[in-house]
Amino acid sequence: MVILWILLAGVAAAGLAVLLIAYGCYRVAFFAPGRKAPSGDVIETPQGEIYEAYRDRMVEWIKEARAMPHEEVWITSFDGLKLYGRFYEYAPGAPVELMFHGYRGTGERDLCGGAQRCFLLGRSALIVDQRCSGKSEGHTITFGIREHRDCLSWVEFLRKRIGPEVKIILTGISMGASTVLMAGGSALPENVIGILADCGYSSPRDIIKKVIRQLGLPAELGYPFVKLGARLYGHFDLEECSPEEMVKHCTVPVLFFHGESDDYVPCHMSRINYEACPAKKLLVTIPGAGHGLSYLMGREAYLKAAREFFGPNASAKSVEQQAWIDGRI
């Protein structure tokens, strides 16, 4: 009997240890404790040495975007969260890029320069704060699992707000790119004319294992605890869907960008997504560009591809904006 109690105590202790490790993984990977967008004159830019040479330009872009006419908009997610976005109208009825930022970022930080780029291409921009970020509600980041359903809700918002005929391009960077690729495998309305995916990962599993290895830990041992943490404490299945699998069902054109020197989301992950996509597609890689720096380091190639790939219906002409554009190109 004593041996039995010892065995039961050992099993209980092991079970408790598993639960504690899984909870720790959830807190590190998925929990977002009410992250807020900077207020007042505070400007947040991506951290890291690779961004230092471009920080002044990022700050300039953010200041410009804050000064540009825009409207704050809100929707309610499928699970009841209040989600926030900023709408920059190029011209009434112009095509819209619906833009999603990366992991633990904000729309303003990760997509700085996004509204200006859209205007250069004759498009409006709706830049959203994903769930758990900026002004949007939520406490669990799901690596695109729930976020891609939010993307579909934003599409419906634009169709109701502007009209069912408005042309929409789903655009994302990093986790945002993977989010729009997952949305692309869903049933999309006909007015969604394409996807622009900049440095997205091939699956939540692959990027999380890659980070575990970077930490010097065995990925095959550590990943099950992360997956369990997502299930028990985030209440979602980390392998429910992935960009690589969802993009196999995509029917709209997909334009991929990736920096060839990306150490965070390796360039080969975009190649995996590209190969899986059966629709019209183009992959543009930028030599020497790190994570999220393709536009900054390869502006001409980026603009050329973004202008030409989706065809003439993806741009509008605005006399009011032409002088501004002429001064930017």
* N- and C-termini, Cα separation: 82 Å
Question: How can the largest sheet be summarized?
Answer: 8 strands, mixed
- By DSSP (H or I, 4+ residues per run), the number of helices equals 13
Look at the helices and sheets and give the structural class: alpha/beta
Strand content: 5-15%
Helix and strand succession?
HHEEEHHEHEHEHHHEHEHHH
Low-confidence stretches: none
The averaged pLDDT comes out at: 92
How many runs of DSSP E, i.e. beta strands? 8
**Helix amount:** 40-55%
The main sheet orders its strands as: 1-2-4-3-5-6-7-8
Radius of gyration: 21 Å
**Net shape:** globular
Task: Give a quick summary of the entry.
This protein has 329 residues and is α/β, with parallel strands linked by helices. 43% of the residues lie in helices and 15% in strands. The protein contains 13 helices and eight strands.
